[in-house]
Amino acid sequence: MLIGRAIFGIGTETMMLVQIVDISYWFIDKEYTLAIGITQFVANLIVNSSAMTTPQLKEKYGIGVAFEIGAVACVAAFFVALLYVWMKENTHSGTKV
C-alpha cells in the first residue's frame, strides 16, 4: 500500500504542475489564485475521500473489490485525460478566456 501511495504521490505532483501551467494560460490577469485554490481544494478532497473510503470498502467487500473500484477510477481518469488533451489540441491556440 505504501508503494502504491508513493507512485500515486509522484503522479499527483506532476499532474498538479501541469494543471497550474494550464490554468496560467486561461487566467491571464484574472482570478489566477482563485482558480489554483479551487483546483487544489478539489484534488485534496478527492484524495482524502479516497483515503477514507478505500479501507471501508476493503473491510466490507474484500481487497479484490476495493482494487477493482480503484482500477475503474484510474481507467476513467485516463479517458478524461485523453479527452482533455483532445479538447486542448482542438481549441484555437490564440484564444484566451
Describe the structure in brief.
By secondary structure, this protein is mainly alpha-helical.
Output the number of helix runs: 3
Mean pLDDT: 82
Q: Overall 3D geometry?
A: elongated
Low-confidence stretches: none
Chain oligomer state: single chain
Radius of gyration, taken over Cα atoms and rounded to an integer in Å: 16 Å
Backbone structural class:
mainly alpha
Please give the largest β-sheet.
none
Question: What can you tell me about this protein's structure?
Answer:
The protein is mostly helical and 97 residues long. It has helices at 2-26, 32-61, 63-89. Helix 1 packs antiparallel against helix 2 and helix 2 runs antiparallel to helix 3 (63-89). The longest helix is centred in the middle third of the chain and has 30 residues, at 32-61. The protein is elongated. The model has no long low-confidence stretch (mean pLDDT 82).
Features:
single chain; 97 residues; mainly alpha
